[in-house]
Amino acid sequence: MMWCAVLVALAVLIWPGNKSGRLYRLAYRGRAVDSAAINEPRYAGSPRVGVAQVITSAIARLRGGGTLVEAFEEQSSRRFATQRITVERLITVFEQRRLPDESPAQVLEAARGVTAAAVLSDELGCQAVPCLEAVLTAYRQMRLMQNLRS
């Protein structure tokens, strides 16, 4: 019972919503870290890597045991308000990370494909990885067609 009280007190002290700005000594490498730095987005200043790489990273996250929502939250550098994948959210994520030669129409098609894969996985209970791999293959073919036309 004593351990429970200690853990609750520790959680209250280091909870991410705590805006006190004090420094906390963390067990992670034994250094002091500002509470705002704990919640700093992982990919906030990342370069644009492209839509295909975002989908590939989501596939890797799923294979590592994460969820589809977690994978795209990580890429967007923020949490989603609800635990659902929507076309609008994915357009925002893909727009943040797309390459200069990737068009908004390609972003829209990729977002629709990933959303369809997420809905299919949720509705039928199938694995999301093969569905995302199919979307990734279709996206790469679309990009190849664009390159051949140009």
Can you give a write-up of this model?
This protein is mainly α. It folds into two domains: 37 residues, no CATH class; 99 residues, no CATH class. The protein has seven helices and two strands. A hairpin with a 6-residue loop joins strand 1 and strand 2. Helix 4 crosses helix 5 and helix 6 packs antiparallel against helix 7. The radius of gyration is 19 Å and the shape is globular. 21% of the residues are buried.
Explain briefly what this protein structure is.
The chain folds into two domains: 2-38, no CATH class; 51-149, no CATH class. Helix content is 62%, strand content 4%.
Q: How would a textbook summarize the main sheet? A: 2 strands, antiparallel
Order of helices and strands: HEEHHHHHH
Would you tell me the overall average pLDDT?
Answer: 76
Q: Strands across the major sheet, in which order?
A: 1-2
So how many helices? 7
First-to-last CA distance = 69 Å
Number of separate domains: 2
Determine the strand fraction and express it as a percent band: under 5%
Structural class assignment: mainly alpha
Shape: globular
The strand count comes to 2
Poorly predicted tracts of residues: 1-13, 15-41
How large is the radius of gyration?
19 Å
Task: Name the features.
mainly alpha, 2 domains, two-stranded antiparallel sheet, 2 strands, 62% helix
